[in-house]
Every structure is written in structure tokens, then in C-alpha cells.
Specification:
about 280 residues; mainly beta; eight-stranded antiparallel sheet; 1 helix; globular; binds manganese (II) ion
Length: about 280
Amino acid sequence: MPVRRLLPRRACRRVGAWVFLDHFGPTDGSAMHVPPHPHIGLQTVTWLLEGEVEHLDSLGSRQVIRPGQLNWMTAGEGIVHAELGRHGRAHGVQLWVALPREAAHGAPSFAHHAALPEVVRDGARVTVLAGTVAGATSPAVTHTPLSAADLRLDAGTDLAWSLEPAHEHGVAVLEGEVVVAGHALAPGVLLYLPPGTPAVQLVATGPARLMVIGGAPLDDELVLYWNFVARSREEVVEAVARWRNGGFARVPGYDGPGLPAPPEPAPTLRAVAPWGPSEGSP
Ligand code: MN
């Protein structure tokens, strides 16, 4: 399955508390099947353009997600989940939000939002996934100021899209092509807009779809390793050992092994600020 990793990148590690963004598919016939694996210190956000994915987790949640719906999982101190694609077709995004220090070790939870607020404006049909965008607020629970919206643009759209000036933003085209602030963007690129940007011009000659994420810059030093977001190498080492030793809860209803534990992180792995030197993650 084609996967475009838009965050983290060497040139841009985070957008607000958004630390990870994969755009997968579209593809036919090779449904995703991700066996049980643990997360700590983050929230995972699943948003589909096509296909269906069944989510199972160690809290006992069992939920099919379809296009237009949102899965919002909070790992906190630890959760285990499996993601099983159905019907072969797969196209969507998965994002991670780093939890702030005070919430990073909180209780895990899982929320499925079957419907989200929508706004129609100047040739754009907007779905609000997180935060408040164009006057509409997502029900998803966040722990730092952040936003995410899916924009479907009609052919011929030429729109000055308002941004929260206190936030940094990232724009990723999911389908078609959009000229964003003068840059012709296709899928596979994330355009970074620093704080202080009041609006961004979106021009689409054909129908297109894009995602705009934003958030207050998060200055914390973080380690991303495998499926973990932590604040020290020691925390990562502990989580790897915990998974290897069966210390995470099981996923009821899933028969079969989980993902194998990754190797111990290199001794040089350390927490880094958003714009510091490379963290040496695999
Ligand atoms: Mn996962």
C-alpha cells in the first residue's frame, strides 16, 4: 500500500502537537491488517476517504469506521489496538497528537464520532475533525489548542482560507492538485505555515481535497520511537520492555500474535525540541 509520511520529516518535525501524519492509499485489494500493538503518550486520529476499517482495542472497544467518521484514541499511559481493513479498498490518513506532559500518563480512552460538523463556504465543503474551524467545533477531546479540517474544493475554487494566527499550520493535498499560497501541491507534500499567518490562498482548477492541520507550537522535547511518544529514552526503553514482557493489556476478540517488539533504541536516542538536530529514530 502506498504510504506518504508527511510528519515527522527532517525539515518539519511537528505542527503544533501534531507529530505524525501518514496518508495511505488509495489502493484496491490489499486491505490493511495491523495486528495488536501498543501506544503511549499520544492520541491517534483515523480519518478515511474510502474503505472501512475495524478498530479493536484493549478497553474492549470494537468499532467499524467509514468515510466521514472519526476515530480518536487516547493512549495516555498505554493502550493496545488492532486495525483491520475491510472490503479491500483503503484511502485515508492517520495522525498522532503528542499529549502534553500533564496528560501523557493519563487514562486511555477511545471515542468514535459518527458525524462531524460541516461548513460550506466559497466552494469548499469543510468537515471539522479537531478544534474550531470556520466557526464549527469538533467534539473530539484535545489537550492542547489544535485544529484539523478536511476541505473538499469544487473545480474553480479560489479561496482565502482563514487561519488562527497564534498557531502554526500544515496543508496536505489528499486528492487532486491545489495551488496553496502560490505552491502547486499534489499528494505527498506538507506545506508548513508558521505562526503569524492570518490566511492562506487555495486555488483549485479541478475538484480536490486537502487537509489543514494547526496548533499552538509545542516546545516540549519529545522522543518518537516505534508507536511511542515519550519525553526520555528511559521511558521508551521501559515501554519496549513492557510490550516484550506482556505488560500491556490484551485486545479482547483478536486471535493471533501482536506486532513484534522493536529493538532497544540506540543509546544516542534522546528527546528533542521541534527544530533541534535529528533524533535518530528509525
Ligand atoms: Mn496504532
